[in-house]
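User: Structure with FE2/S2 (inorganic) cluster, tokens only please.
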Amino acid sequence: MEDNKKRGGDAPIACEVEAGKKYSWCTCGHSENQPFCDGGHKAAESTPNLRFEAQETGTVYLCTCKLTKNPPYCDGSHNN
Ligand code: FES
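Assistant:
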């Protein structure tokens, strides 16, 4: 992958989110706290986290493979 990114996993992780709350999604795959950022991109000199706000309260499936075209959500690209 480009930018020293790596797969943080091979399948999405179901996460409970709250409407209006902000979350920090790992874009680089180096976080030990998938699918969220733990700051690991700094040591890895990789891509920074993506901040996003949940639109609704409920379960979302967040990408861990970092191949999604619809970050932070899984779009099935992990099967490629
Ligand atoms: S886990 Fe990355 S696209 Fe599904």
